[in-house]
Predict the structure.
Amino acid sequence: MTETSFGVRRANTILYCRAWRATVAFYRERLGLATSFENEWFVEFVLTDGAALSVADAGRATIVAVEGQGITLALLVDDLPALHERLHAAGVAVTPMRQRWGAWVFYCRDPEGHRIEFWTEAPAKGAQ
């Protein structure tokens, strides 16, 4: 794993959510993310060996939730068309795949309103 000049070895983005239970269910059941830690108000999901996404109950947090505004979670994935199809089949409202910035992308939102961007560097077969 590559380290930054100031020693970061792992990153964890924490989303503080009012719709905590629905948001946890979305990441666990709809997106299929595995958990590495959870308690009654906080769940940490595994993204990669060096990155995690956590969902915290805003009612128990020490900071104010942003209610899904001003945040995009951008995730580079291996097989964009397959993921798009799987999420659509799971009932996730996904946008059509499109080419932007020299990459293929599609978007969805979690129950709290956070925008999630899935993208790939390689041209996606079957993308429109």
